[in-house]
Amino acid sequence: MNASTAARNGQRVPNPPPQQGTKPSNNGHQPPAKPTATITTMIVCLPDGLSREPLTAHQLDRHFGVSGTLQPRFWSKSDLYLWQWRRLIGRSKAAKNQPVWCAGGPARLLDLTGMRQGAGMGAGIRHQLWQQAVQGTKPAQPWVHFHTRHVTEPDKYSYEQAAADFWQQPRVTAMRVHNAANIGTPLAVDELEMLQAGPWPTSTTAR
User: Fold this and answer.
1) Across-strand partners of 102?
2) What is the pLDDT of residue 68?
């Protein structure tokens, strides 16, 4: 059984294992479970002189060697001219009082400041929700702690035992209980380290 990986702070770290109902076992010699790299989201930056045709034609597999589809992840600025709207890639239909989403375009046409402020506000709300869900529980060890021990001593500490020890932590259990009762506002267990690090400031002031 392998654990998938994600890039966090410039490093690949194993994601939490899928929860299973089987009991942990440790029969004899077991090789360590090595994570395999998995890319779920990729942001491609192109210089001004390079053609945007590979992106607009949805030919990611041919030009970048990856299979995938374009997703609207960026906000575009609202005060654009018609010819500027046409330079955006994968622009979605505008909704009332909502930002216009697109899959990309020239950086000067994207509302990166608004996205940063919106992400900060959303993160603050999510952290407050998480604090309410795990109130009274002890800080939990991240999955990488158990996975590292398994890789170091695969014969003594099986992958199944590591997964069971991770999921049985009271704080992780509290997050699972919240997710079961609140399907619309789930708390991602793979964000455990970030949530335990504390809320980030939503804005900064420079002088």
Assistant:
1) 74
2) 74
Average pLDDT over residues 173-189: 92
What number of other Cβ atoms are within 10 A of residue 171's Cβ? 20
Residue carrying the six token digits 């608004």 = 114
* Burial label, 195 (beta-carbon count in 10 A; 0-12, 13-18, 19+): buried
Q: Say which DSSP state 8 is in.
A: E
Instruction: Specify the amino acid at residue 70.
Output: L
Checking DSSP bridges between strand 11-14 and strand 100-102, what pairing results, if any?
Answer: unpaired
CA separation for the pair 137, 27 (Å, rounded) = 33
Check if the beta carbon of residue 142 is closer than 8 Å to that of residue 192.
Answer: yes
Three-state DSSP at 49 gives coil
Convert the pLDDT of each residue in 9-42 to its tens digit.
444 556 788 776 445 555 555 666 665 666 677 7
The one-character DSSP state at 70 is -
Cross-strand pairs, 80: none
pLDDT at 192 over 90: yes
pTM over 0.70: no
CB 100 within 8 A of CB 66: no
Residues sharing a CB contact under 8 Å with residue 118, sequence separation 6 or more, in sequence order: 75, 99
> Tokens 């049985």 map to which residue?
168
